[in-house]
Every structure is written in structure tokens, then in C-alpha cells.
Write a structure and sequence with these properties.
The protein is an alpha+beta fold. It has helices at about 1-20, 20-60, 60-65, 70-75, 75-90, 130-135, 260-310, 325-365, 370-385, 390-405, 415-435, 460-470, 505-510, 530-545; strands spanning about 100-105, 110, 140-145, 160-170, 175-185, 200-205, 210, 235, 240-245, 255-260, 415, 440-445, 450-455, 475-485, 490-495, 550-555, 560-565, 575, 580. The chain contains 14 helices and 19 strands. This is histidine kinase.
């Protein structure tokens, strides 16, 4: 590919360099032809207008009225003569929005091809260019581009005009009036051919734009333009342009055409690019054909390599499905058979680990200390003997419910609602036993009450909060449950406002939370004897890597424990200790 592509690129660059001047020469020639055609149309408009003005200047009847006494103009004969002359001029200058003709005499004579309501011709006397017009020779023509003249205020698009003004002389060669013809720029702009990136414009002798397709450019002075410069290229705003000009024979104004150098060369680059693309296309087809032929030989090896990579990423349920009599197919069949044996062994190990997990769970649940139950029953009995109030009935009810949940081990999972009910009974009994008042608040978000959780998951942490967090003093315990909808995770937070723990103890607790070492006998205190570490081990066996435990604590502020594991719903029937079923 390198041996073919590098020569192609070199050929492209050399051809582009050698054909550059030829393309530019053709572009200049084409622009000059277009400019000549546009110049011919412009000259035709101006020369026709000049011929009409010559007829007016040479008309004896018009000169007679301009040199007549003002009183004669208002006589009946003068009015008849004026009307006849007006009809003649109207026929000559066909009424059009592109042409405005004005004749003004020093004796007060006035003729216009437009209504006075549109424009008052006497305002011409106040124009600054009138002094220049008065200095114009009788046989000469005064040319000027007007950009702020409105002959019709309802049409703001008629503000740009080309003015042709000529003095009118009597037979004695004295100036008796002036003829002013304004040609609307909209009559000229259609002959400016602006296409394919080319820009054509009409400039006056000072380089000011007289006519342009873009009306916003009219009146703009081209600082880069120099009359009779003889340049073929100009630089405008840092970009190079091809420059072609043509002087009008009627008024010595310049028709200018500029073409961006990039646009002029773009067609050449396009042809070269097409040529290069065709060569690359044939080379690509040849490469594809060669690749197809080679792939028939290498495809089994490529498939086998990809298959082994997927197996290396842990996708043991994949099979190669490569068949044939070659060596790669034989190796693939051997790997498939090996994966079948591995998958069978994994299923057997999973079954054994599930049985082991259930056995360990039953062992952990069997660690509940029965001495607490007996001590608690004795305390309730003594209280009943000493006080016969309603409180004892509530204590006995809490104890009954707690014993029912303790002795029933048929179901590993129960709804979170039942777990929190058990915690409520447990806190009631602990408040009675330790003579301190711990207030329990629970906030279960929608959808969490019926979520299935492992039995006695929260109780060990409540026990630690009451015994170790409050040190026989009252306090508050908050239990909150919510669901993270995006991940389908149940989050349970247990928080107290007890004495908390130091950073050293917190660090040690975090490090040993998942430890499988045997718990020392002196650490087995409280109702369950399981502790936070047993809870973490139990949930890790059930949920694996999906289980997360976060512990935070501050001295004299409290401790917060957050449990996260996958959300699960289901129907669970709980068989009570006395033979009844609860939901």
C-alpha cells in the first residue's frame, strides 16, 4: 500500500504545480470575456441616455422655452407650447421607475418625468455638486453616483442612482438651464455577473462602488483599487484575488471583476482529486480481492484467536463453532470439549457452595444467646408482680412476637416490614430491661416495605447502638430505607446519636468487618451475639460483590451504618412458633 499510495500523492502534487498557471490564465480569460459582455451592456445604457440628452440639448423649442421671459411661460401660448413639449419628452423618456429626467431653467422653467409629489426638482439647486455642474463645459457631461436620493419615499430601494447632468445653452452660448437624468442602479446591477465565486462591480474614478449585486457594498470605497495599475492580482484582507478591469467608453468609469485565487484553482484541484480517487478506487478493489483470497486461508485462525480472547475475558459459555478438517478446527473442537467439562464442574461447585452457605447461616442463627430470653422473662414476671398496669401487657406482647420470629427459621428472607416490626419489639424490651429510653424512628420509602431482606439483619446493629452507643443513657435511632432506581439497589441506613467512636476504633471496625477469624468470647455480648462482623459475613455470602457496607462515626455525634444490596421482591409465608402463619 505504501509503494502505491506515495507515488500517487507525488504525482498529484507535481501535476497541481505544473497546471496552476494554465488554470489561472484560463480563469482570467473567462473573466475578461464576461466583463466585456457586461461592459457592453453598461455602455449601451449610458450611450442611449446620452443620445437622448443630445436630442434635448439640440431641440430649438426646448431652448426657446428655457430662454423665454418668465411671464411668457405663464401665458396661454406658453402653456400650450409647454404641454406639447411635455408630450414629446414623455414619448422620448418612457415613464419608468429606472429613469428620472429633470429640466430646470434659470427663468423658472421646469420639466420632470415624475410627479412633484415624489420629488421637488428645485432641491437640486441646494446640492453641493451644483457648483461643479455650473463649471462643466457645454459639450461635456457631469457624471456622479448618488446614494441618498429618493424619488419615491415608499420605495427605499431606489436610493442609489447614476446621475448624468449637462448644461443647456442658448444660441448665444450662454447657459440657460440644466438637464439632469438619473438612472436607477437597479437597471445596472442585473448585468453584473457574480457567479462561481466571481465578484463584479462598477467603480467611479475614485474607486467608489457605483453598482453591485450586494446593495450594502454600494458607496464603499475600494482601498485596494488603483486606476491603471496593470495588476493581475490583488490582495484583499490577506487573501489573493485575480483582478480584471475594463474601462467604459461612455464615462471612463471602471468595470472590475475579482476572482478568489482559491476558487479559480478549485476546479483544477477537483479534477486532480477525481483522478487520484479513481486510481485509489482501483487499488482498493485489488486490495479487497487480495484480502478475500488470503482470508480464506487465515479466517479459521483469526476466529480461533478471537474465541480464545473471549474465553480469557471469562466468557466460558462461548463455543467456537469452527468446523473442518484442518488443524485450527481440531484445536477448536478440543477447546469446546474442555469448556463443557469446566462448565459442568462449575455447576457442581455452585451447588455445593449453596448447601454450605445455608449450613453456615443456620450455624450463625444458632448462636443466639438463650440466657437473655430467660433473664428478660424473669424481669417481666417481677414487674407483673409489683405493678399491675397496662405496660406489662405490651411487654409480654413484644416478647411473644420476638420469640416467634426467633424460633421460626423456615424462611431465610422476610419482608423489610416484618424486620422493622421485630426491631420495634426489641427496642421496647431493651428500654424496659435497661431502664433507659431509646426512641426509634423509621422512614421506609415507597416500595421498600415489601422488599425481601435476610432475617435478623438489622437487630445486631440496634443492639450495639443501645448497649455501646448510649451507655445506659437515652437517645434516638433512625432507620431509613430507599431504592436507587437506576441500579435496582436497596439502601438501608441505621443511624444513632450516641457517643460514637474514635477514628482508631472506626478504622479497626472497617478492617475487621469482613474478617473470617473467630470472634473472641469476650466480644460476644448483647441479644444476638452475632455483631456487625457476622452481619457483614452473612450478607457477603448471600449477595457476593453486590453487597456494600459503609460505616461512619464521630465522637459525641453518633454512628451511621449503610447497607446496600440488590432489591428483591417475592411472596414469603412465615410459620409462627405456635403453628399459625403470618405474612
Amino acid at each position: 500500500m505504501i509503494c502505491v499510495l506515495i507515488p500517487l500523492v507525488c504525482i498529484y502534487m507535481v501535476t497541481d504545480y505544473l497546471t496552476r498557471d494554465l488554470i489561472l490564465e484560463k480563469a482570467v480569460g473567462s473573466a475578461r470575456e464576461s466583463l466585456n459582455a457586461s461592459s457592453a451592456n453598461m455602455n449601451a445604457i449610458f450611450e442611449q441616455t446620452l443620445e437622448q440628452s443630445n436630442f434635448v440639448l439640440q431641440n430649438s423649442e426646448i431652448r426657446q422655452m428655457m430662454s423665454a421671459d418668465p411671464e411668457t411661460l405663464h401665458s396661454a401660448k406658453g402653456i400650450i407650447q409647454y404641454n406639447r413639449m411635455s408630450r414629446m419628452l414623455d414619448d422620448m423618456f418612457v415613464l419608468s421607475e429606472y429613469l428620472k429626467v429633470t429640466l430646470i431653467g434659470k427663468n423658472g422653467f421646469t420639466y420632470t418625468s415624475y410627479p412633484y409629489s415624489d420629488f421637488n426638482p428645485k432641491t437640486f439647486y441646494s446640492e453641493r455638486w451644483m457648483s461643479l455642474l455650473k463649471q462643466t463645459q457645454p459639450i461635456s457631461t457631469f457624471w456622479r453616483a448618488e446614494h441618498d436620493t429618493y424619488y419615491n419615499y415608499s420605495d427605499k430601494g431606489s436610493a442609489n442612482w447614476v446621475m448624468i447632468a449637462r448644461p443647456i445653452q442658448s444660441t448665444s452660448s450662454s447657459t440657460i438651464g440644466y438637464m439632469i437624468i438619473n438612472i436607477n442602479e437597479r437597471k445596472l446591477s442585473p448585468y453584473l455577473n457574480n457567479d462561481n465565486g466571481k465578484e463584479m462591480m462598477l467603480l467611479d474614478d475614485k474607486g467608489t462602488v457605483v453598482s453591485h449585486v450586494d446593495k450594502a457594498r454600494i458607496g464603499e470605497t475600494m482601498t485596494w483599487w488603483k486606476k491603471d495599475s496593470g495588476l493581475d492580482t490583488v490582495e484583499i484582507s490577506g487573501e489573493k484575488f485575480l483582478y480584471v478591469d475594463q474601462e467604459l467608453s461612455s464615462n471612463k468609469w471602471q468595470m472590475v471583476s475579482i476572482i478568489p485565487m482559491k476558487a479559480a484553482l478549485s476546479k483544477n484541484k477537483q479534477i486532480l482529486f477525481i483522478s487520484l480517487a479513481v486510481q485509489i478506487l482501483f487499488f482498493t478493489l485489488f486490495s479487497v480481492l487480495l484480502t478475500v483470497l488470503i482470508s480464506k486461508l487465515t479466517q479459521p485462525i483469526v476466529k480461533l484467536s478471537a474465541f480464545v480472547k473471549r474465553i480469557g475475558r471469562g466468557q466460558l459459555d462461548e463455543r467456537s463453532l469452527i468446523r473442518g478438517k484442518n488443524e485450527a478446527a481440531q484445536l477448536a473442537r478440543t477447546i469446546d470439549q474442555m469448556l463443557d467439562r469446566i462448565e459442568s464442574m462449575i455447576e457442581q461447585i455452585t451447588y455445593e457452595q449453596t448447601g454450605k452457605r445455608k449450613a453456615e447461616l443456620e450455624m450463625l442463627q444458632a448462636q443466639i444467646n438463650p440466657h437473655f430470653m430467660f433473664n428478660l422473662l424473669n424481669s417481666i414476671r417481677l414487674n407483673i408482680l409489683m405493678q399491675g398496669d397496662k405496660e406489662n401487657a405490651e411487654l409480654i406482647g413484644s416478647l411473644s412476637s420476638l420469640l416467634r420470629m426467633t424460633f421460626n427459621r423456615d424462611n431465610e428472607f422476610i419482608p423489610l416490614r416484618e424486620e422493622t416490626d421485630t426491631i420495634s419489639h426489641y427496642v421496647t424490651l431493651m428500654n424496659f430491661r435497661h431502664a433507659n429510653q431509646v426512641r426509634l424512628e423509621m422512614n421506609l420509602a415507597d416500595g421498600t416495605a415489601e422488599a425481601l431482606v435476610p432475617r435478623f439483619m438489622i437487630q445486631p446493629m440496634i443492639e450495639n447502638a443501645i448497649i455501646h452507643g448510649f451507655e445506659q443513657f437515652g437517645g434516638e435511632i433512625f432507620i431509613e430505607a430507599r431504592i436507587i432506581a437506576t441500579t435496582g439497589t436497596l439502601v438501608i441506613t441505621i443511624k444513632d446519636n450516641g457517643i460514637g467512636m474514635s477514628q482508631e476504633n472506626l478504622k479497626r471496625l472497617r478492617e475487621t468487618a469482613y474478617s473470617s477469624e473467630r470472634i473472641a468470647e469476650e466480644d460476644r455480648k448483647g441479644f444476638s451475639g452475632i455483631g456487625l462482623r457476622n452481619v457483614a459475613q452473612r450478607l457477603s455470602m448471600i449477595y457476593g460483590a453486590s453487597f456494600k457496607l459503609n460505616i461512619s462515626s464521630e465522637p459525641d455525634v453518633g454512628t451511621e451504618i449503610c447497607l446496600e444490596f440488590p432489591l428483591n421482591y417475592g411472596k414469603v409465608g412465615i410459620e409462627n412458633a405456635d403453628g399459625n402463619f403470618g405474612g
